[in-house]
Design a protein that fits this description.
Blueprint lengths: L1 E5 L14 E5 L7 H17 L3 E7 L2 H4 L12 H10 L4 E6 L2 H4 L3 H12 L1 E7 L12 H10 L3 E5 L3 E2 L2 E2 L2 H9 L3 H8 L3 E8 L4 H5 L4 E5 L9 E9 L2 E10 L11 E6 L10 E12 L6 H18 L9
Parallel strand pairs: 1-4, 2-3, 2-5, 3-4, 5-6
Antiparallel strand pairs: 7-8, 9-10, 9-14, 10-13, 11-12, 11-14, 12-13
Helix pairs in contact: 5-6
Length: 318
């Protein structure tokens, strides 16, 4: 997959000659099942025309640049987003450097001068796509403007789940409830976090349950504090585990959130290694214990519960 950074507002990368494509437009925050349907539609159109599939997206996220709340933490950091796009069959990704200047572009300039310079034969957008200064132009205006310069516009309807439109906002809401099973349905894959194993307080080993303290590589959107069934990718092997997200209130009064994973049936040194977590199920809320013995008993119960629930998942070593 080719990744092309777009820094010039009105003529791509200067003298670069862009080839015709079938292009999907959007922010693609999360690359959830709604986005996947849109990309699949673009891929289907591309197959009938023999053209590559391209995708136009923005970095940083427009809401972050515009100072709107909720987007300082990410569902899919840039590298992860590129990996998923490649898996979805995208051939070319145009990454627009989103700025206040870009946000101020008129709808006409966006279509005639910016989009036109990229030479898509067809653009595919969701029904609620908004563009132009203030995001006040909609798909009907996009269709009207684009077709004047020979670009077809294909509009994809909403994807709903349990009576709600699938969106990154909905996914963030469900993460805040700890409902990672539903998040997996909305994403079409388990919610993942990449991070490096760092030295912690080494308390888990003393309790009989050694843990890997994981420092996320990016400012991920984390689910609510609690204990989760996870799988962890270590050197290309998946291991089941129990993850605690929280502040360790039994031992601390601070509010710094940490991620500590106990891997089932794993032996070895993880310090300094980059690992990938996938959250599979919520086990319980985080709580404060009044003795070490009470905590050990609860961790033992959590591990047994995790082992029981593993039967509904496949491809995990334990």
């Amino acid at each position: 997959m080719e990744i092309i950074q777009i820094t010039d507002l009105l003529d791509g990368n200067g003298n670069t000659a862009f080839r015709p494509t079938v292009m999907a437009l959007g922010n693609f925050d999360g690359l959830h099942i709604g986005h996947q349907q849109l990309i699949a539609r673009a891929r289907g159109l591309a197959e009938t025309t023999g053209l590559p599939v391209s995708l136009l997206t923005f970095y940083p996220h427009p809401r972050q640049v515009l100072g709107k709340g909720g987007y300082t933490h990410l569902l899919t950091p840039f590298d992860e987003k590129m990996r998923v796009m490649q898996e979805l069959g995208v051939d070319v990704v145009y990454v627009v450097n989103f700025s206040l200047e870009f946000a101020g572009m008129s709808a006409e300039d966006f279509v005639y001068r910016f989009l036109g310079a990229l030479h898509p034969q067809t653009v595919v957008v969701g029904f609620d796509y908004a563009f132009g200064r203030g995001g006040t132009s909609d798909t009907s205006q996009l269709k009207q403007l684009a077709e004047q310069i020979g670009i077809d516009v294909d509009i994809v309807g909403a994807v709903n789940a349990y009576g709600e439109k699938v969106s990154s906002t909905l996914i963030r809401e469900k993460l805040s409830y700890g409902d990672v099973r539903l998040v997996q349905e909305l994403l079409g894959r388990p919610y993942g976090i990449n991070g490096i194993v760092v030295h912690g307080e080494k308390r888990g080993r003393l309790l009989g349950f050694p843990t890997a303290n994981i420092e996320p590589n990016d400012p991920y959107t984390l689910p609510k504090n609690g204990v989760y069934l996870v799988r962890v990718l270590v050197q290309n092997v998946w291991y089941a585990g129990v993850l605690n997200i929280g502040t360790k209130p039994t031992f601390h009064d601070n509010h710094r959130r940490t991620l500590e994973a106990h891997l089932l049936n794993f032996e070895g040194d993880l310090y300094g290694q980059t690992v990938r977590l996938q959250l599979l199920d919520f086990i319980r809320d985080e709580k404060k214990f009044f003795s070490v013995e009470e905590l050990i008993a609860q961790i033992s119960s959590d591990v047994r519960e995790a082992e029981t629930r593993l039967h509904s998942f496949s491809g995990i070593s334990y």
